[in-house]
Amino acid sequence: MKCPTCDRPILWTDEFPERPFCSERCRLIDLGAWLNGERAIPGEPVDPSGLPPERHPDATSPGGTGPGPQR
Known about the structure:
The longest helix has 12 residues, at 24-35. The protein has one helix at residues 24-35. The protein is mainly alpha-helical and 71 residues long. The chain has a domain at 1-40: Erythroid Transcription Factor GATA-1, subunit A (Erythroid Transcription Factor GATA-1, Chain A), CATH 3.30.50.
């Protein structure tokens, strides 16, 4: 198996605790690519207005990403 970031050969053993990556550096590079939108899972875009209130990006629940309750 090869590291998906740098193609270094790795084994699926405890010698490579960051598997499938060869190192924490390669794992973080991959994470950064996902967060920057350089990688994505193909599919149709989701219309947030069709989500239930607790799943809407502007939800005010404690786990939501919205502004939260007003005080």
